[in-house]
Design brief:
heterodimer, A: alpha+beta, B: 189 residues, mainly beta, DNA Polymerase, Chain A, domain 1, three-stranded mixed beta sheet, extended
Chain lengths: 98, 189
Amino acid sequence: MWATISELELGEKEEEKLQEWELVSHYQTNDMKLALLNLEKQFSEFKAKNKQATLVLCQSNMTTEQLGNQGLKTMASEFPVISVPVVARDNEFPAFGW
Amino acid sequence: MKAWVQTENSSMFPIKIKVPRTIYINSKIESTDKDFKKVQNKLLPRNRKIFNLYEWETSEEVFQEKFHSIQYNHLLSSNIEGIYETKMPLRFRAINELGCLIKPKKNKIPRHEQALGRVYSIDELEVIGYRMKDVPYLPSGSYEKLFLLHSTCNKQQVFSLFNFVTKQISLAIVNPAGPKKSEINANEL
């Protein structure tokens, strides 16, 4: 079950900001490594195309090293990663119906 | 130690810095060991009395190798009041000594050596903290951002990668109870 943007009950400004963004890659899997491999591809393509200084902000319960070992090697080795504290509220996904 | 540096022309790359281990030994008797350098301008925690305070600087490898014998020979000795900074994280020490604005000392780096790929020692780097007003640290707009949000809900996980350069989002949902791989209908999001 998926929610539409209008069902998320966002404010006007939030909805405007969200509209600026484009969802380019999206899938679900039952295998975390597969999910991370897909993201690894995104990181490595970004690294190849962009030469400007780039920071990665990472909000996860896992450390950068753990994510690197699970498959996000480019993120762990090719970018400076700043860990952002995890906020419990961000883990709630009522729209997914889980 | 790996450190990320950004140059004034906004290029960013990792460098390696060798941070030595420095410990302090407060001895009630004078030491004749040439490896120990006597220091004067230090204060001990909780203002403990300084007898003869010696600084011992070595590589982390040598320190780890000799640490047990140091503990055995010195801490058990009644002539040693204490050994300090054995547990100081090297990363903290590097940040404490170097700050956030540095440049290589010109006469310390051999001409035939490349700036990239070499291992710098702390004394090869010059602190330019006094220029903070002229050269701001990581000024806004000097770097791009990627944001990886990893959320977990029971056994389900969501990885969202936000690319602030292209304003694009990549989404991967891990649902152990779901199919091996399936596309999400983006129109429904």
